[in-house]
Amino acid sequence: MDSSTALPVGTTVTVVLTKAGKVKVRYPATVVSDDGTHLVVEAAWAGDGVRDFGFVRFEGGDVFTEHYWRDRWYAVKAVRGGDGVLKGWYCDVTRPADVQGREVVVEDLDLDLWVSADRGTVLRLDEDEFAASGLEERDPWAAAAARRALDELELGAWADAA
């Protein structure tokens, strides 16, 4: 299957998040929509236990509606609690999504953005991890694209998934 071929609604896929060439996490998700460029899947919280960031907690029962683009350097995840209440949007700066058969492979580039449900809090995250990653030395073009993507997200590109 070509990377740009749209996946049928209801298809079960595996989201594979990589970082520095290694698989960070993989989890099942269900295709909500796909136009060949913008893929939307829904998945349950795939982490172990509770992850408390201080500004938000991810925990069992949370549902992520995840937006991936095959031509954008980020992914946007709307996060709802088990009660259906929106917690906010977690935005990952990534290379464009690569759909390989029934796998959605996404390379995390460390930079993240959090937008609270009331849109009152917008936090740039992990800029120190990005600086320490060595991407700017290894691949300056990709590093520049990642920084542009974070700026786009902060300026409101995340709202494409709202």
From TrEMBL:
InterPro entries, A to Z: DUF402, FomD-like_sf, Ntdp-like
Keywords: Hydrolase
Stretches assigned to the DUF402 domain: 52-153
Gene Ontology MF terms in the entry: hydrolase activity
PANTHER family found in the cross-reference section: PTHR39159, UPF0374 PROTEIN YGAC
Name under which the protein is recorded: DUF402 domain-containing protein
